[in-house]
Design brief:
Radius of gyration: 24 Å
Number of strands: 11
Helix content: 40-55%
Shape: globular
Structural class: alpha+beta
CATH class of the largest domain: Alpha Beta
CATH architecture of the largest domain: 2-Layer Sandwich
Strand order of the largest sheet: 6-5-4-3-7
Distance between the termini: 42 Å
Length: 309
């Protein structure tokens, strides 16, 4: 089976994995030799001033050098790396995007923006944001709902939705669908609700009980499910697959023929969402297990097929 590292996009990461394997096999490499190999990568050859400081810190973090100056790979070590310029430019873009102002208190956002004044935003939002019709009024309502949800979680307060009192637990964002979901405790049951569907959302004066976190952990442990699919790497199916399930825990296995086996772990209240996402992959995906999930997919395909006969 081919290693997943072979398909990793980051050349520095691939090289470091190779060097770790070489050291494990007995190679003797000095700090300078490792750095020279990194800067010999095509990605660095044409840079007048590569991020030398960051790369050196990566080396010093990943390896330990013995008395003879040769690198060793410690079995246990705490990792702490400085952010790259690209990461700081990305953060600058996030801090300057008015649609994301709700994420941080205004004073903190301005303070961070001032610290990043020498880092231009990594992207222009028009390059990636979905084209939308003029929905300024609707967007304002949605932004207000999102702000209430964030404030409730920050202050550990319950929320009022219409006339119903809810306990917020988690705020999730699905990048693929561009939607926010709020995980709430309602009548002793945890539910995942799209933020935009919450009606007349306001902040309550009632505090969130201190045992809610433990209740949530217990709920996750008792309501976990898995589905395994086989994905053929055609029509960008693999990229679509990882985008679709970006917010879920998963394990992947790459076969020699280029197909992927992907096991997705999810909570039972996400079952319908998981089903629809897998179904959207069409013929590029095959459900391996569990059997009832596989039979449900087949049944839906047959029902659709019958409409065209």
């Amino acid at each position: 089976m081919r290693s997943l590292f072979d398909d990793t996009k980051n050349p520095v990461f691939r090289l470091l994995c190779q060097i770790v394997n070489e050291i494990g096999a007995g190679a003797k490499l000095t700090r300078k030799e490792i750095l020279n190999r990194i800067f010999a990568l095509p990605e660095f050859v044409y840079l007048e001033s590569p991020e030398t400081e960051r790369e050196e810190k990566i080396i010093d973090t990943l390896f330990r050098f013995n008395g003879a100056g040769f690198a060793e790979v410690p079995l246990a070590k705490n990792f702490s790396l400085p952010p790259a310029d690209a990461e700081l430019c990305w953060l600058s873009a996030v801090l300057s995007d008015e649609e994301l102002f709700f994420l941080l208190p205004e004073t903190l956002r301005q303070k961070l923006s001032a610290r990043l004044k020498n880092f231009p935003p990594l992207y222009e939002k028009n390059f990636w944001r979905k084209l939308r019709a003029d929905k300024s009024a609707a967007d304002k309502i949605f932004s207000d709902k999102l702000s209430v949800a964030v404030k409730a979680l920050t202050l550990q307060k319950k929320i009022i939705c219409g006339k119903e009192l809810l306990t917020p637990c988690r705020l999730e964002y699905d990048l693929f669908s561009d939607k926010y979901f709020l995980l709430v405790l309602r009548a002793r049951t945890f539910e995942k609700i799209s933020v935009e569907t919450l009606d007349a959302l306001t902040l309550s004066d009632e505090n969130i009980p201190s045992d809610v976190e433990e209740q949530l952990k217990k709920f996750y442990a008792e309501n976990v499910a898995e589905v395994t699919i086989k994905v053929r790497n055609t029509r960008n199916a693999v990229e679509r697959c990882f985008a679709l399930f970006g917010s879920f825990d998963k394990k992947s296995r790459l076969q020699d023929d280029g197909t992927y086996f992907l096991t997705i772990k999810y909570c039972t209240f996400d079952a319908e969402e998981i089903f629809e996402k897998i179904f959207s992959l069409g013929a590029t995906a095959t459900v391996i297990s569990p059997k009832d999930f596989r039979e449900r997919v087949i049944k839906k395909f047959l029902a659709i097929q019958a409409l065209y006969e």
